[in-house]
Design brief:
Two copies of one chain form a homodimer. Chain A is an alpha+beta fold. Chain A has two domains: 9-168, Nucleoside Triphosphate Pyrophosphohydrolase (Alpha-Beta Complex), CATH 3.90.79.10; 173-245, Orthogonal Bundle (Arc Repressor Mutant, subunit A), CATH 1.10.10.10. In chain A, 30% of the residues lie in helices and 24% in strands. Chain A is built from seven helices and nine strands; from the N terminus they run ββββαβαβαβαααββα. Chain A has helices at 61-73, 96-105, 124-127, 153-168, 184-195, 201-210, 236-245, and strands spanning 12-25, 30-36, 48-49, 52-56, 79-86, 114-121, 138-142, 214-220, 230-234. In chain A, the strands form two sheets. In chain A, strands 1, 2, 3, 4, 5, 6 and 7 form a seven-stranded mixed beta sheet that branches. Chain A has a two-stranded antiparallel ribbon with strand order 8-9. In chain A, β1 (12-25) and β2 form a beta hairpin. The longest helix of chain A is centred in the middle third of the chain and has 16 residues, at 153-168. Chain A is elongated. In chain A, 33% of the residues are buried. Chains A and B meet through β1 and β5 of A and β1 and β5 of B. Chain B binds a DNA duplex through residues 183-185, 200-203, 205-207, 221, 223-230, 251.
DNA sequence: TTTGATAGTGTTCAAAAGACACATAGCTAT
DNA sequence: ATAGCTATGTGTCTTTTGAACACTATCAAA
């Protein structure tokens, strides 16, 4: 979100932005990365937003989203997918706090801006080993505890969540949220968190293993105070084969 | 596409347009509504485009799409759904013919424009009783015969088709393409056309009837040179009940 | 009255989904 | 060392859903 970046200010398109709903998972619950307006005032979710920026006239939308992500997380090759465009004429600037923020960061705070929303999935520990609280200027918030955001970002978050839920039933994108090596229980928990419902353990394991996209590493967890679990990794090759044949339902 | 409409030219946002992929069905195949650049030169699909326009700064994206649709078809209350945003910096103006067209219709033909694409479903006879050929300035083209379009509209068409295919498996939106009263064979044919594959007749009928969203009108086709078919209509009430319970798979 | 064209109808088999309970392995605390 | 805690890992049965398949019925036209 740095207006004084290498690129010239004039190249920023005043009417089009991208916003990124960045999801993370800490093996316990689903998080979303939020930034706040930097105000000193009392905490309020209405001041938090998902990261975004106006686009440059030289980049396409995916590139703009990738740039925003990289500036914030320094991670490249992140899973990224468009949610859609949001363009209510009053989508920004409805709230008093929105306007203050806009005046601080935008050369033309009154411009009508439509935004193209993306969601992305990151391995939380790779970016930030601890989930920060709302009080920080950028931090992870549990998705379940977010009820309001700046601008129309709450609506965007919900749309992103909806699309993630739909997508995860169709393609195994959830691995982007897990460490390289993970247990079936962790994967199971991830699906339950995203879909927000319980899934039968045995049925889940059967189904996911039958897809043949997991490699059993013949390696076990160590140091856990219970029976250690087998570790698995995502098998990219088998997945690609599967994708080509056009599977389109996990059935969760 | 009239720049001299009631609204003032200045209100047109130079950077954002909407484009509408309008699908129609004539009980035999699926069509898409295309307009051409009005040139006198030899026919070329590369001169055809789906209807669209820059948005006004006072309207939201859905309203802009609705306006474009209404200007072209005079139909309101059309089924409309966003496909997504397309924003390659070179998406318009790559082809020579694109640039000619842009210069004719745009106040700022060089501006970088991102577009928000929609698809909509209309009852063809309500709008235009005959499918016009490509030669007309606005007409229906069989989707299967479209291989190239102006700008990035071919890509947009394919994205719309993909979304329509996905959606029709999940929600019974196909009725928007059929007359109020229709036969099961017509519905069957519609699904086959959209999904581009054969569906077993008996299985299709069983499944669609089990959804309980059709009312048998106890009325038959007349004047057909074969056994006349029962007429049905879409049962909005039952569908709403069903939607609330959240059914999400027809399973075609 | 024969022909051509589409409507309409059930059963059987295979595959997938859903429900369900107990023994196991490692750590920890005593 | 042993008892207890905790999460792992495993199989069967039932129900539901999907897929394959062929013949008779009705109307109009020739």
């Amino acid at each position: 979100m740095n207006l004084q970046s290498k690129k010239n200010k004039q190249e920023l398109n005043p009417n089009v932005s991208v916003d990124c709903v960045i999801f993370g998972f800490d093996l316990d619950q689903l998080y979303v990365l939020l930034i706040d307006s930097g105000s000193n005032e009392a905490f309020s979710q209405a001041r938090m937003a998902v990261p975004g920026d106006l686009i440059f006239d030289t980049e396409n939308l995916d590139e703009a989203a990738t740039r925003v992500l990289k500036e914030l997380t320094s991670i490249e090759n992140i899973y990224l997918e468009q949610i859609g465009a949001f363009g209510d004429p009053n989508r920004i600037g409805k709230k008093e706090s929105d306007r203050e923020w806009l005046e601080a960061i935008r050369a033309q705070p009154e411009a009508r801006v439509i935004t193209v929303a993306y969601y992305s999935l990151v391995r939380m520990p790779n970016f930030n080993p601890k989930a920060s609280s709302f009080a920080k200027s950028a931090g992870w918030a549990p998705v379940k505890e977010v009820f309001d955001l700046a601008f129309d970002h709450y609506e965007i978050l919900q749309a992103g969540l909806k699309q993630l839920r739909r997508k995860i039933k169709i393609q195994p994108i959830g691995f982007n949220l897990l460490p390289e090596k993970f247990t079936l229980s962790q994967l199971h928990k991830l699906y339950e968190c995203i879909l927000d419902k319980e899934l039968d353990k045995r049925n889940f394991r059967r189904k996911i293993l039958n897809l043949n996209i997991l490699t059993n590493l013949d390696e076990k967890q160590v140091g856990v105070p219970h029976k250690p679990s087998q570790l698995f990794e995502f098998n990219e090759e088998n997945y690609k084969k599967l994708s080509k044949e056009g599977f389109d339902n996990f059935g969760f």
